[in-house]
Amino acid sequence: MTLLDNLNEDMKQAMRNKEKEKLSVIRMLKAALQNEAINQGGTLSEDDEITVLSREMKQRRDSLSEFEKAGREDLAEKVRAEIVIVEHYSPKQLTDDELEEIVKVTIAEVGATSKADFGKVMGKIMPKVKGKADGNAVNNFVKKYLS
């Protein structure tokens, strides 16, 4: 069952249960996936779907931090609820320990020794953790081990 099929089934269920917020988020995700498919001129691979979900999650996390900075707790709470729904469709997230281990191994693979190698390390890590870890967390671990 593809992600789009899951979204369609969950959308029907959300309509039946009159869950307006969940329905709204599912429709946004579905639209983002369909737009990406149109842009690519075909069906999406699982990797493409993960890319779209990651982009949607990043947008919501960015919005959340902006709302919190502005003191708009009402809007921040709405975005937190959306994040929970998007996480349901995203791949299982790596723990900090797993992510830290991947960073250590990748630094050793690349032979990185200083902050000048930051770009090389990030370029190797990001495809490995795509959709499974937040880029800021990866960034922090790489900086920690290269300084």
UniProtKB/TrEMBL annotation:
GO terms for molecular function: carbon-nitrogen ligase activity, with glutamine as amido-N-donor. It comes from the Bacteria. SUPFAM superfamilies: GatB/YqeY motif (SSF89095). This is GatB/Yqey domain-containing protein.
